[in-house]
Write a structure and sequence with these properties.
With about 450 residues, this protein is of the alpha+beta class. The chain has 13 helices and 16 strands.
Length: about 450
């Protein structure tokens, strides 16, 4: 979170700096990466023209001036330096593929079938010591059959809400006509998985907020940084994806069923209650149940104008498993709402103070490793994934980073005494029980 008001840079009047708080830097050098696939259904000769896209791309970038700055950071502190006289120009690149769009669509856009050059998730290389905070790859498929837009924004300066706003501004700056009928995003998809390796996490904020909810059919980023073939094979082997689908109507029914008469319960409260109780029923151990959820605090604390950085803070809730299972769903939903409502400015600053400790990871690791496992959920954010119409139709598919998808995780500590096969087996047994849970199936549908 940006905690310092933008101030003049001492070296020059046309420079200013934004100070980043520890939670901004939680993702380290990672980028938010979306991939949009557009099919040339009408066989247009000038489909998604590069010069038009690039012009709108720069216009959208100028709307968020921080994206034109230079990130200066170490492991704990960071500053984005704004230099109007020498902006950090966003990276925009065009490539051509010998693959046909239909060949990829036939495999449901699975990352393993992506053409060479589209699948890399590496950060754009530094040029003269400067890393673009915003980069886009436009890949054209064979026979002018379609394009893929891979857009990456540095996570430390913009989160998923800001990313979606950026994409909508970009597309609307090009296409001002009546939007075409887009494929409605009326269903939330919850992908149950867990993060098997937390060694790459750079700060306690990752331990607190990062979950592994995979909307992609595969997650190549699970592979270690050496990018070796063996690493990719390992990533495939460790991949686990199960999908539970909740229709919009089912979520509305759930909210009614899990709401007391006061009407304060949100869909997210009700869904978290449903999933947490279902997860608790997969364990026969009479122990405490632990819940971790992310709370967006944008409306709870003053932020800089147009700030679109990370604004999710952790909430921990612990209760006796017996109480969790023997209470009505609306009772648990009310308790979840109570703790969410308790988040205020004081709590946010306490979190920031914790993250600013010299050794926060050790404290976080102790808390997590004291638990045999716990349940974690993310916000049900209604991102407008399907409104990015540049005037050539809406995308056929949008692939979303796992940490931005609404979903839930089961976190199992990775200890040297337990092999990865044993951990995966534990997870699979848990999901096997979830897939026959009567209360869960009343609202959700297991589709994978």
């Amino acid at each position: 979170m940006v905690i310092a008001i933008n101030k003049p840079h001492p070296d020059d009047a046309h420079k200013r700096a934004y100070a980043l708080a520890p939670i901004d830097l939680a993702q380290g050098n990672s980028h938010i990466m979306f991939v949009y696939f557009y099919e040339n259904k009408r066989g247009l000769s000038n489909f998604m023209p590069t010069d038009v896209l690039f012009k709108g791309f720069l216009q959208a970038a100028n709307h968020f001036s921080i994206l034109l700055g230079y990130l200066e950071s170490d492991t704990k502190h960071g500053t984005v330096l704004m230099d109007n006289a020498n902006p950090n120009v966003p990276h925009f690149e065009e490539k051509h593929s010998d693959s046909h769009f239909n060949a990829l669509a036939k495999h449901n856009y699975h990352w393993d079938k992506w053409p060479l050059g589209l699948d890399t998730q590496d950060i754009v290389e530094q040029q003269a010591g400067k890393i673009p905070l915003l980069s886009t790859l436009l890949m054209r498929f064979a026979d002018n059959s379609g394009v893929a837009l891979r857009v990456k924004i540095r996570h430390s300066v913009m989160d998923g809400n800001g990313f979606t706003l950026f994409m909508n501004i970009w597309s609307s700056s090009i296409y001002t006509g009546k939007p075409s009928t887009c494929n409605p995003d009326t269903e939330f998809i919850y992908n149950a998985s867990f993060d098997f390796d937390r060694s790459a996490l750079l700060s306690a904020a990752n331990y607190i907020t990062t979950t592994n909810n995979i909307k992609l059919d595969g997650k190549k980023s699970q592979a270690p940084a050496d990018n070796s073939t063996g690493s990719h094979l390992l990533a495939k082997r460790l991949h686990r994806m199960h999908i539970i689908r909740f229709s919009a109507n089912a979520l509305d029914r759930l909210k009614v069923d899990f709401s007391p008469n006061d009407g304060t319960i949100s869909i997210n409260d009700a869904l978290t209650s449903l999933l947490w109780r279902a997860y608790a029923r997969t364990s026969s151990k009479a122990t405490n149940a632990h819940l971790m959820l992310a709370c967006d605090i944008r409306k709870r604390i003053a932020l800089l104008s147009n700030y679109m950085g990370n604004a999710s803070f952790p909430l921990r809730l612990e209760m006796k498993q017996e109480h969790l299972l023997n209470s009505f769903g609306h009772t648990i939903a009310s308790e979840i709402r109570k703790i969410v409502s308790s988040v205020d400015k004081k709590y946010v600053h306490e979190c920031l103070a914790f993250l600013d400790l010299q050794e926060p990871i050790a404290d976080a690791e102790k808390w997590y490793n004291d638990k045999s496992s716990f349940f974690c959920t993310t916000n049900c954010s209604r991102f407008s994934f399907y409104k990015t119409d540049f005037g050539f139709g809406c995308p056929e598919k949008v692939l979303v980073p796992h940490y931005l998808t609404p979903g839930f995780s089961i976190w199992v500590p990775t200890k040297e005494s337990r092999g990865i096969d044993a951990i995966l087996s534990t997870f699979d047994k848990c999901f096997e029980k979830l897939s026959i849970d009567a209360e869960l199936l009343k609202y959700g549908q297991i589709i994978l």
